[in-house]
Design brief:
- The protein is an all-alpha fold and 103 residues long.
- It has helices spanning 2-19, 25-44, 50-74, 78-99.
- The chain has four helices and no strands.
- The longest helix is centred in the middle third of the chain and has 25 residues, at 50-74.
- It is elongated.
C-alpha cells in the first residue's frame, strides 16, 4: 500500500509542476503514464479481502483523478486541474488513513 501512495504522490508532484509550467508536456505524459501503470499493477497484487475493499475503491479513485488532472491540464483547463489535484491529495490522505499507513 505504501508503494501505491508513493506513486500517487509522485504523480501529484509531476502534475503540480506541469500545472505551474515547470515541466514539459511530453515528460508529464510519460511520467504520469508510468505512475498510473505502477498504481494499477501494485493494486492488482493486494489481497481481495474485505479489509482492502475500501482501499481498492480509493485506489481506483486515485488513478482516475490522476488521469483527469492530466487531461484537464492538456486541455488548458487549469482551474479544474487544480481542483482535481486537491481532490487527489485528499484521496491519498484518506487512503493512507483507511489502510493504516498513516504513521
Amino acid at each position: 500500500m505504501q508503494d501505491i501512495l508513493l506513486w500517487s504522490a509522485t504523480a501529484e508532484m509531476i502534475l503540480n509542476a506541469r500545472l505551474g509550467a515547470l515541466v514539459p508536456k511530453g515528460f508529464t505524459d510519460l511520467a504520469v503514464e508510468r505512475c498510473q501503470k505502477q498504481i494499477v499493477d501494485l493494486s492488482s497484487e493486494l489481497p481481495q479481502t474485505s479489509k482492502y475493499a475500501e482501499a481498492s475503491a480509493n485506489i481506483v479513485k486515485l488513478e482516475r483523478l490522476i488521469a483527469a488532472t492530466n487531461d484537464e491540464i492538456g486541455r488548458g483547463r487549469f482551474e479544474q486541474a487544480h481542483l482535481h489535484l486537491i481532490e487527489l491529495h485528499q484521496s491519498a490522505v484518506e487512503l493512507r488513513r483507511t489502510s493504516g499507513t498513516d504513521g
